[in-house]
From TrEMBL:
Possible metal-dependent hydrolase. Belongs to the metal hydrolase YfiT family. It comes from Metabacillus sediminilitoris. Signal peptide: none annotated. It is an enzyme of class 3 (hydrolase). This is Putative metal-dependent hydrolase E6W99_12815. The lineage of its organism: Bacteria, Bacillati, Bacillota, Bacilli, Bacillales. One of its GO terms (molecular function) is hydrolase activity. NCBIfam families: PRK13291.1.
Length: 172
């Protein structure tokens, strides 16, 4: 593992089982609390420390998670309500340079708490047919709702590990 990929890269499993979906949903459900626990005692200087050389600060990571997971939620809704929609990607690096990424992290932590509550409630009630519905990402191709659950369970854990690994390295 590396500082860039502390839990490794996402590897998609060929078969998405109900047990796998349940595990991923538990990870999505737990993420807001785990993030809150990870950053609870950090001061502004620590929040503005990059997790690796050339990487985002903890503050940027928290705001990125809110932006990214909002996009993922909307992508799920689009896939469930439209026929194989083409979604619009966004420039996450440029988003991380916007003024709102300098705000205190509480707004994004609160947003993630509320978003994940709704998102997991939606996803837990999907049928196997709904989990197979898809959207098209211009760069990544066709992605099913089920696969997207796995991608974002990994994504949340990936960035959580950026934070917890930095805290461990710095003895915070």
């Amino acid at each position: 593992m590396s500082e860039k990929y502390p839990i490794g890269e996402f590897h998609f499993k060929d078969e998405i089982t109900s047990d796998l979906i349940s595990a991923w949903l538990a990870e999505l459900e737990d993420l807001p609390r785990l993030l809150q626990d990870a950053v609870r005692d950090l001061d502004n200087e620590q929040l503005d420390t990059p997790y690796r050389f050339g990487g985002w600060t903890i503050r940027q990571v928290i705001h990125h998670l809110a932006d990214s997971h909002m996009n993922a939620y909307i992508r799920c809704k689009l896939a469930l309500t439209e026929e194989n929609p083409v979604i619009k990607p966004y420039e996450e690096g440029k988003w991380a340079e916007q003024p709102d990424y300098k705000l205190p992290i509480e707004s994004s932590l609160s947003l993630l708490q509320a978003l994940h509550k709704r998102w997991v409630a939606l996803l837990r009630n999907l049928s196997p047919v709904e989990l197979e519905k898809t959207f098209i990402h211009p760069d990544s191709g066709v992605i099913s709702v089920g696969k997207n659950i796995g991608i974002y369970a990994w994504h949340g854990n990936h960035h959580l590990a950026h934070i917890t690994s930095l805290c461990k390295r710095k003895n915070w």
